[in-house]
Amino acid sequence: MAGQFETSVIVNRPVEEVFAYLADGRNDPEFSPRVQKIERTPEGPTAVGTVFRSTVKDAGMKTGRQFRINVLEPPRTVRWNEISNNLVTASEGGYDLEPLPDGSTRVRIYNVLEGHGLGKLIVGLALSAARRDAPDFGRRIKTAIEAH
Predict the structure, then answer these.
(1) If pLDDT is split at 50, 70 and 90, which confidence band does 60 have?
(2) 76 in helix, strand or coil?
(3) 81 near 67, Cβ under 8 Å?
(4) Residue 95 to residues 7, 57, 61, Cα–Cα distance (Å)
(5) Backbone phi and psi for residue 48, each to the nearest 5 degrees, phi listed first
(6) Would strands 88-99 and 35-41 be described as parallel, antiparallel, or unpaired?
């Protein structure tokens, strides 16, 4: 079973600033408490093909994660897919940014979670937890970008 969670939030910053912040995955620990460490390969600006490697803690377990940027269309679209081998992965995810007339930006984030092997038994739990946290996740993104 695979499934999607998503949320949207209005960030009181121009779309170009929001895009620059979110395209640099090294900012993820500022709004995602599960991300303990993250690095970008290769060094330099984020581009299609950039890989972000992270250590995350989920349900008390640390795992390594690798996400590859596969679409980058400034200042509106970022897409990724997880290339690591974990029980539950984000087979697809991204940010959609919409500039608003007042200079703020609507941010939509989504991830499609997929179970592999034994992960097929727990992906429903992971998806439920992600959906419950989605509104708070959006608020954490908003707070982090506005404070940056």
Answers:
(1) confident
(2) coil
(3) yes
(4) 10, 22, 26
(5) -60, 130
(6) unpaired
Max distance between CA atoms of the chain, in angstroms, equals 47
- Count how many Cα atoms sit within 13 Å of the Cα of residue 120 in the half-sphere of its side chain: 4
Is the N-terminal amide bond of 45 cis, ω within 30° of 0? no
Q: Which residues contact 88 (CB under 8 A, 6 or more apart)?
A: 113, 114, 115, 116, 119, 122, 123, 126
Structure tokens at 33: 């408490």
Q: Is the per-residue pLDDT at 67 higher than 80?
A: yes
pLDDT tens, residue by residue, 6-33: 999 999 999 999 999 999 999 999 999 9
Q: Are 18 and 129 in contact (CB under 8 A)?
A: no
Per-residue pLDDT at 59 exceeds 90: no
Q: Please list, in sequence order, all residues whose beta carbon lies within 8 angstroms of the beta carbon of residue 70, skipping any fewer than 6 positions away.
A: 48, 49, 79, 80, 81
